[in-house]
Amino acid sequence: MLYLVGLGLSDETDITVRGLEVVKKASRVYLEAYTSILLVDQAVLEAYYGRSIVVADREMVESNSDEILRDAQSEDVAFLVVGDPFGATTHTDLVLRARELSIPIQTVPNASIMSAIGGCGLQLYNFGQTVSMVFFLDNWRPASFYDRIKENRAIGLHTLVLLDIKVKEQSLENMARGRRIYEPPRYMTVGQCAQQMLEVEEDKKEGVYGPDSLAIGAARVGGKTETFVAGTLRQLCDADDLLGPPLHSLVLLGSRAHELERDYAREFAVDKEIWDKMWAEQYGKQ
Amino acid sequence: MLYLVGLGLSDETDITVRGLEVVKKASRVYLEAYTSILLVDQAVLEAYYGRSIVVADREMVESNSDEILRDAQSEDVAFLVVGDPFGATTHTDLVLRARELSIPIQTVPNASIMSAIGGCGLQLYNFGQTVSMVFFLDNWRPASFYDRIKENRAIGLHTLVLLDIKVKEQSLENMARGRRIYEPPRYMTVGQCAQQMLEVEEDKKEGVYGPDSLAIGAARVGGKTETFVAGTLRQLCDADDLLGPPLHSLVLLGSRAHELERDYAREFAVDKEIWDKMWAEQYGKQ
């Protein structure tokens, strides 16, 4: 059996009781560690599970899945995924390959940023499609998120923006020289995301949002130190100190927002006066 | 402290380790049991937790929240919610009241139908806003879901439809006579949902979807007996036997669907030939 086990969002105790039973009895345990991270180290997980873990990087999952799936027709293999196995990304290829090999599959769901973001006070019913924001480079500034946000905003919906992480990346020089030396991990902050969003709006000039648009920055959602900061995109460009360490996400508000959402999120406002003013001008009118 | 603890989607072992610790040490434990249900009885939960649980119905949560929050400034109160505390519904009022009373709040997230539905093979990035379907009555057929689906379909997105449950409902006669006698619980099936959707399309005639539109019925998502059935809305009207017992949900496909989604979900098709034909005609063209 191939078990896809969600680990939840924060630390070793966020696994479900059922998930923990699977991990303890599986023949082999893999941890997918390139689309998201927990806020604790692998060693903490291993001590907690009483098991050693193989960290599966992107290359292994995408090119060497048969090693992960080896003998899973008759043995139990646990593939651990931060959040929910179907949360921010999916492992469709791995499951399709398992099916080809006649390996039975079972999923152990867990918390995902896609529902836990509700802790910011915005109703999940009012969210449109989720988008991703990657680190811009000088000559690579993918802006497809902008069209997706435009679609959401056109019908009044909030947009959850998931932020890039860079784990086990090589510098161009090390890659060219074939040196397996990796850069320190990087996690995009709310400030960087808000800044990139405003740059793209300045380029495109379609008025999808602007510096005064309201948004909520979120840090370590689902964890004990979960933090939300609400304000305009301009304010969120400088709110990283308030938010603290990674992981960060951002929600851009849609106009269909409800007064209860305003009151709930107001608690997190950088400046309650500005929050009230911008809300009155732009939101809650549908 | 007020703890909002998600229980996950299926049985007593879906609680997280952190959630279980909270339940074991809290002074009082409430279970919100009117927006969703687990697939196991209260007695099973009580035996597993080693605690007695107060079932909180809608009236208690909405009108008597101060009893739930009593002394939570200094004691720990656990408020258990099926799925994720912010999943299908929110308990905004309870949290706002707790804030007024200066009660600290902590959330223990868990799996939600909103991410676990990814098990059907559709990418969560391609979902628009989630809608709800209630049991129609002769003179009450709320169809706001139709406009929401229209918005999602206009931009090619899938729609998750959450289905009504009726727990602790009184008949009109018993209500009029003030008798606290409750009807047996009712859970909407995928067949009933598909039927109501088609009836509303017949009324409105806007061509938002039709009998040949592809959808996926889902049953007991996240549980060990999780089942998906894929087909046209017409086929899903008669697929309840394949799906089995509650809870059910339904996903209507959007045109932005990807080939990987087609291949993954095809496994669940009532009739793979019809699935392929309808897909080729209607989907995956963006």
From TrEMBL, chains A, B:
Recorded catalytic activity of this chain's protein: 2-[(3S)-amino-3-carboxypropyl]-L-histidyl-[translation elongation factor 2] + 4 S-adenosyl-L-methionine = diphthine methyl ester-[translation elongation factor 2] + 4 S-adenosyl-L-homocysteine + 3 H(+)
Keyword check for Ribosomal protein: no
InterPro entries assigned to the protein according to its UniProt record, in alphabetical order: 4pyrrol_Mease (IPR000878), 4pyrrol_Methylase_sf (IPR035996), 4pyrrole_Mease_sub1 (IPR014777), 4pyrrole_Mease_sub2 (IPR014776), Dphthn_synthase (IPR004551)
Keyword Metal-binding: no
HAMAP family cross-referenced by the UniProt entry: Diphthine_synth
Family to which this protein belongs: Belongs to the diphthine synthase family.
Protein name listed in UniProt: Diphthine methyl ester synthase
